[in-house]
Structure to design on (199 residues):
């Protein structure tokens, strides 16, 4: 009978140890998977943030180069000078007033056409950072945390209207908060219980 009790106690303790080892292994694997998921989210979030910063830089450069009042005034002044220069050349060549005006308008139109092409090329430079932002956002749109997916969608919508800097900044802030919340390690039941008891 003693042998039977000893064997039963060995089996129970062996089963307990096996269950405990399986539980610890699963917990360790879950912790590793959670850390890997958090690391991947941080990398993807950083890629999107960098792409949005590049987009903001390209948009700011475009505004600075072509859209400010000083630049518009410069373009107007250059058009006036091109008109005057073309008209003067036509006058020297013996042209009539109408011919001088037409040559002047032609010179001004040529200059404005060149400026318009340069403006469009600068605006087209925004297309590449926008494509990078969309590519970086793709995996985040499928992220299981709905707050991260929603903040990513808000960010893409704000990138579509890059001229609205306040909206883009708000979207960046919301995205940062969602990523911070998703990358904060989840506390174990025991740690949550201790925090509740301490508070």
């Amino acid at each position: 009978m003693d042998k039977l009790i000893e064997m039963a106690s060995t089996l129970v303790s062996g089963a307990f140890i096996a269950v405990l080892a399986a539980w610890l292994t699963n917990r360790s694997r879950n912790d590793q998977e959670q850390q890997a998921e958090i690391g991947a989210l941080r990398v993807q979030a950083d890629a999107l943030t960098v792409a949005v910063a590049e987009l903001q830089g390209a948009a700011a450069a475009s505004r600075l180069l072509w859209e400010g009042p000083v630049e518009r005034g410069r373009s107007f002044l250059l058009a006036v000078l091109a008109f005057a220069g073309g008209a003067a050349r036509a006058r020297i060549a013996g042209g009539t007033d109408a011919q001088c005006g037409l040559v002047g308008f032609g010179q001004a139109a040529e200059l404005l056409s060149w400026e318009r092409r340069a403006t469009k090329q600068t605006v087209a430079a925004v297309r590449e950072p926008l494509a990078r932002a969309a590519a970086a956002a793709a995996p985040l749109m499928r992220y299981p945390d709905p707050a991260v997916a929603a903040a990513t969608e808000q960010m893409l919508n704000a990138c579509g209207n890059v001229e609205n800097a306040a909206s883009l900044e708000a979207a960046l802030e919301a995205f940062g908060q969602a990523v911070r919340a998703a990358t904060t390690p989840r506390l174990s039941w025991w740690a949550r219980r201790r925090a509740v008891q301490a508070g």
The mean pLDDT is 80. The CA atoms of residues 110 and 157 lie 37 Å apart. The radius of gyration is 33 Å. The helical segments are 2-67, 69-92, 97-124, 127-141, 146-160, 165-183, 189-198.
